[in-house]
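Subgroup meeting minutes
Present: P.N., E.W., G.H.
Scribe: E.W.

1. P.N. recapped why we're keeping a running log of single-chain structure predictions: easier to compare across weeks, and new members can see raw inputs and outputs side by side.
2. G.H. added today's entry (107 aa).
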Amino acid sequence: LCDWSSDVCSSDLPEAELRSDAAVTVGPDVEGEGDIEIAAVPGGSYAVGVLEGPYEKLHEAYAWIHSTWLPTSGREVAGGACYEVYLNDARSVAPEEIRTAIHVPLR
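Output recorded in log:
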């Protein structure tokens, strides 16, 4: 997850300051415990782009969405978390075949 409003997606952050969350879908009766938190991804409109290629190119895809697509779309980033959905298993395909859906919340 990344938050455009807090510059968390900046490639200028030192590696020691980078943070990420992993998420899975759980039922409504599941509660967090210890470092495990329960959070909801808000509904609404999202820009969704699919990157075909290695994870090292994710920053280029986010930059394209933010600097090329967004200004011509008539939309604005809604703030809050962007998220990625990994569409195949990177362990079983070549790096150039990895598919990642990038979701950016819009208003």
